[in-house]
Amino acid sequence: MFKKLIMSCMAVAAFAAFVLPASASAATATDPGDVAVGASITGKNIGNASFMATDGTTVQVTCTTAHAVGTVTKNSGGVFAASITSFSFSGTGGVFDSRPECTAPFGGNAYVTVTNLPLSITTVAGTDTLQIVGNSGAKVRFVMGSTIAGACEYEATNAAITGTFTTAATTVLTTNNTQAGSGSKLVGGGFFCPTSVQLSMSFYLATTNGTEIGIS
User: How far, in Å, CA of 118 to CA of 189, rounded?
Assistant: First the structure.
């Protein structure tokens, strides 16, 4: 029997997101299949992936699609970990760099690019929480740019972006839409760049052949 992995995610952007398992207290599921280290995985958003203002309610940028691709690096001892080598965001705006841009409610379109891939996503043993960091354990960094604000570069406020996951029939992960959870501060950009943003995003994770992900 294996514990069903479901992660309630974000995105980060770098984000975020994005991705994973079941808590130690969760009931066992009907053999979803154990996903081996090295297995290729893919994740897609549920609903919009939104970058919010510090208040957690005002939407700065909305992306209708977030797509993560990576590889399982651990799945044992109640811990699931993955290396996310690609995390792209797109929306219903005009085309930029061969993909539709996300939309900005206050005018114009926006692109979002995670700049320090691969991301590492790891669940915390015995809890329903997860952590997301950038390449070599660095803080997640991303660029959010538009014709109005130009390129705005952000870095996660804390060492890791955090999220939660819950057990259910589908693997779903959710970022914590707070400054402590997914807050990112402006580290480069002009006057029109928001000084901080946080990610509101949920997504599911599966192997590339559609196999459900379980924790051994």
Answer: 23
Round to whole Å and give the CA distance between 73 and 77.
13
**Strand partners of residue 206:** 42
- Using alpha carbons, list the distances in angstroms from residue 96 to 59, 102, 113, 138, 145: 21, 10, 11, 28, 11
For 10-69, the pLDDT digits (tens) are 333 333 334 443 333 332 333 355 688 999 999 999 999 999 998 889 999 999 999 999
Q: Hey, where are the domains in the chain?
A: 2-215
Q: Which of 37, 150, 35, 19 is nearest to 86 (CA)?
A: 19
Contact 66, 87 (CB under 8 A): yes
Phi, psi of 182 (to 5 degrees): -130, 15
Residue 202, CA atoms < 13 Å, CB-side half-sphere: 12
Distance CA(202)–CA(27), nearest Å, equals: 22
